[in-house]
Amino acid sequence: MKKIIISILLATVLSYLMINAVLHFENNVICDNFVRIHIIANSDEPYDQIVKMGVRNHIFTKFKNEFSTLSSKDAAIKYINNNINLISDEVNNYLENIGYSNKAAVKITFENFPAKVYEKFLLPEGNYNALKIVIGSGMGKNFFCVMYPPLCVSENVRIEKNVKTNTSKKYTVNYESRIANVFNHILR
Predict the structure, then answer these.
(1) Directed axis angle between helix 73-97 and helix 46-62, to 10°?
(2) Alpha carbon separation from 156 to 28, 48, 51, 160, 175 (Å, rounded)
(3) For residues 187 and 120, what is the distance between their CA atoms, to the nearest angstrom?
């Protein structure tokens, strides 16, 4: 009886280890096919959060054609590396044009992201290459999504220059939503 219990326990442990190995391998395969975008706001103040989303929209709009023609993860990373200064200039010019006093640092990184549920699938936690944009001190909430293939829900936010009063900042935000077709791009 003792041998049977040990055999069952050993089989259970081996099964668990094999399943974990397969899931870890599948996770790495998934992570190896995506490039994320990660934008961190200066602070958690409402205006800084709106600026963060404005930066996101500006980048998605400005580089829409380029991002949509990328044929692989390697092509996306190469594009980012070859155009990192252009992307940085676009972000910082945008910030200046809306009257925002902070600058942004732009770089490509390899970092851990939490699991994220998109419209019809789960992108697992793991290490991904990412276009990272840190606005000002980078102490605020962040936005992350998938740059390649483009899977993000895009909300276009227009920001007018803030008008200061004695009591608070005033700003106008207009939202327009559109959802990218996730599966057509993945299945190509």
Answers:
(1) 130
(2) 32, 16, 12, 13, 6
(3) 13
Q: DSSP letters of 106-154?
A: EEEEEEEE--EE-SS-EEPSEEEEEEEEEETT--S-EEEEEEETT--EE
Summarised one tens digit per residue, pLDDT across range 18-49 is 444 434 434 444 567 888 899 999 999 999 99
Cβ(18)–Cβ(10) under 8 Å? no
Least confident of 16-25, 101-110, 111-120: 16-25
Tokens 């155009």 found at: 83
CA-based R_g, the chain, Å: 21
Task: Tell me, rounded to whole angstroms, the distance of Cα 165 from its chain centroid.
Answer: 34
3-state secondary structure of 52: helix
Which residue type sits at 148? Y
Q: What is the pTM of this model?
A: 0.68
Residue appearing with tokens 């920001």: 159
